[in-house]
Amino acid sequence: DVFLAARVYDAVGDSYAVLRLLEPGEREIPAGLYGAMAKAMFNSGDASAFGEWWGKAEEETRADPVLVLYHAAWMAGWGEEPEAESCHRELEAAAETLDRRLLANRLLLRVARQRKDLAGYQEALGRLEGFQGDRMADHVDYWTMLREADRQKEALELARNHPTPPRNALEVAQYGLALSKLGDTAAARRLLERYGPTLGDGPAVFCMPLWALLGDLYIGQKAWPELARMGRDIRALPEGNATMGGFGWFVEGRATVELGDRTSAAAMFDAAIREGFVTPPVAMEVAAVMLQQGYPDQAQRLLLPLDEVLGGRVRYWELLFEAAYALRKDEALVFKSAMKARALEPDNLVRRLNYAVALLITRQRPDEAVGLTLEYLKANPDSPMARLNHAQALAMVGRGAEAAQIMAGVPLPTSPAALTARALVDLEIALARQDDAAAREALERINDKYLFPVQIEWMAGVRHRLAGPPED
To answer: Domains, the chain, ranges and CATH?
Structure first.
């Protein structure tokens, strides 16, 4: 029972689990859980949503002593005077009582953070330390406030000399990220390397932040052998391999690309896909890196099964478009991806341009492509790519002279794929102007390797028509 589980997580204070179970819009939340949602929203940093859920809660729910303290914190940090100060005093009084001091002081930390009240934060943190109620995140927030107050040196000194070791993978990640943001990436790396093999051995949902941060540090330092070793270390974890094995293969593959062995890296990426990733969003970001590193086939295979879960995210369709375009095997997938992305962001110029490119590839609705490519060209008048796309669209509707004028002065590209794209536009212009000699010359410059199947089929027809002797 989802609602029963949410009540259990609320009772133990796991707000993120409550939000995962009761994500607004996914299901109708019963009134008895409005208070749990209010607390979870506040703890996740969404104070405005607290007010919304508080306002919907019944009087009996609002009378709950715990929720009363949350409301006082909300008013103290985000409310108007004089109520804000009155609620702050209420929290201060509760912070001295035995039964409410833990929650009250933690809420005072949130209020002080919102008010940018360093002294108030330090007082509440000191009280928490006095009865061992402080957490790593509390200290990290304090160091962050010091840095924001131009007291970076003091913050770094406190971070380096923090006396309490991290107790779990999340605290290791929080501590390491704080050290990194304060400028001591060497200390952050040592910390993560020290605790990774022990505290980092567990379910991915808890341990991935630790390993992801260490991987980012290795990448930033171009420590490729160390990154490869980290991937192997993850796969050797007794417990962690079960949910992070795919990430381990991916990390080693990422390092192997930089070490110059692209064939082995491809095999490692294949293994990562077989092992899988803990959540679809993680898989999507892994696919983005694979695509960036020049592995569109692996990226596309990783993305394709995720459309039911991620189909509402424009980034998903954007990445799938890029992968399918790079592979040049499935024009239908290119068109579908461009169409979906445009539907999600109809006013975005890039989404509209990609849709126009899909129309050009599939030779559909060239009149529409003319308008879409023109608006992109007007916004990017110095872009050779923008001029090329608009010229192709113009030529496809028979406006060859205008297309030639657009292409005048566009420098010749250097990459083989771009040279073929340029030759394809030259061919379209020649056909629109009924210049068979120029069309034959353009055909000689086109490499079918860089065309989609539908373009190759169209080209075969053009070649057949031009195969006869030139007319006198």
So the answer is: 330-472 (1.25.40)
Closest CA to 351 of 363, 342, 360: 342
| pLDDT of amino acid 18 | 81
Statement: residue 46 has pLDDT above 90: no
How far is the C-alpha of 452 from the C-alpha of 302, rounded, in Å?
21
Under 8 Å CB-to-CB from 61, ≥6 apart: which residues? 31, 32, 34, 35, 67
Report how far Cα 184 is from the mean position of its chain's Cα atoms: 25
Please state, in angstroms and as integers, the Cα–Cα distance from residue 337 to each residue in 6, 438, 456, following that order: 36, 34, 21
CA distance 300 to 330: 11
The whole-model pTM stands at 0.85
The residue type of 319 is L
Alpha-carbon Rg for the chain, nearest whole angstrom, is 29
User: The tokens 């010359």 sit on which residue?
Assistant: 441
Q: Given the structure tokens 């095999």, which residue do they identify?
A: 267
Least Cα distance to 321 among 291, 346, 348, 347 occurs for 291
Task: Please state whether the peptide bond connecting residue 82 to the residue before it is cis, i.e. omega within 30 degrees of 0.
Answer: yes
At position 268, the amino acid (one-letter code) is M
Nearest to 461 by CA among 394, 389, 363: 363
Return the pLDDT at 6. 81
**Alpha carbon 217 to chain centroid, angstroms:** 18
Task: Say yes or no to pLDDT of 178 above 90.
Answer: yes
User: Tens digits of per-residue pLDDT, 238-280?
Assistant: 999 999 999 999 999 999 999 999 999 999 999 999 999 989 9
